[in-house]
Amino acid sequence: MATQDKYCFERNKKESERLDIQHRVLVRTSGNTLIHPSIPIEEIRSVADIATGTGIWLQDVSKSLDTPQIERYYHGFDISSEQFPENPGAIQFSVQDLTVPFPREHWGRYDLVHVRLLVAALEESDYQATIANVYDILKPGGYLQWEEIDEETYRTKGYPVFNELHRCFDYGLTAEGKCFRASAKVYEESRAAGFVGVERLCYNSHQNPDLRYEIEERLTAIIRTLYAFLLLRSGQVDTAQVASQEAEKLVEEHRRLCAQGNSPPLKLMRVVGRKPLHESLL
Ligand SMILES: C[S@@+](CC[C@H](N)C(=O)[O-])C[C@H]1O[C@@H](n2cnc3c(N)ncnc32)[C@H](O)[C@@H]1O
């Protein structure tokens, strides 16, 4: 039997568009902090974005950091090149599985490593090696910023559609050995790997009422993609047609509740930490 692809989303044009729109919403949810304010951007010369997808975060970071006086280096990595931009400009892109060590040329090279949205891709047993691989490519004193939409989002009380999404994602991801509590896992594993000053932060889109309509649309997109996909792949329904019908029923319920003013928040989880400047000899 062929090995089942661990990834849960398509890699076509429509999915690339979904990722790019979602990126804008996530950045606004975080109060327009592409890079967490505790990270001193004046010290950042080289940036890696792992599981980069379309490279949208890296492209925005390169625009926001670039100044004529300082030369910076940007590198996006992903297990698949299918969604890399056609015109990457000065940004480098490479195929790399995050769960295996990077080529030596990348070790100790980056001031900042960013990772986002791997909850539906990584198995629970992958996190330890993954964090070790990120550690290896950071310079001493370099920063990690890892962001997820995970269990924390869907366990927000008072939103019936979240109850169903939580049930389905918990069942579907656990069935595949994945970890729904991804940001908590990243927090634990990065501390265990020796990162210092590790913090796990939560941004709530309800802080910005202007985001309400866009969040409603993003959740609709998640129901039509991840929810329908996991219903089918974990055997909760028998056919793609039934999965799609169930997803549309949930979309209808979501829209009905939103129209009544019960519009759910999106919670973005962010873990930041720093590789020590000096390695401990213990
Ligand atoms: C949901 S997308 C997020 C893309 C991007 N980080 C963003 O936030 O827009 C997840 C990405 O992770 C990539 N991916 C999945 N498993 C991976 C692995 N083991 N190593 C590197 N990339 C991986 C997928 O190919 C996909 O591009």
Automatic annotation (TrEMBL):
Pfam hit, one: Methyltransf_23
Coiled-coil parts of chain: none
InterPro entries assigned to the protein according to its UniProt record, in alphabetical order: SAM-dependent_MTases_sf
Protein name, per record: Methyltransferase domain-containing protein
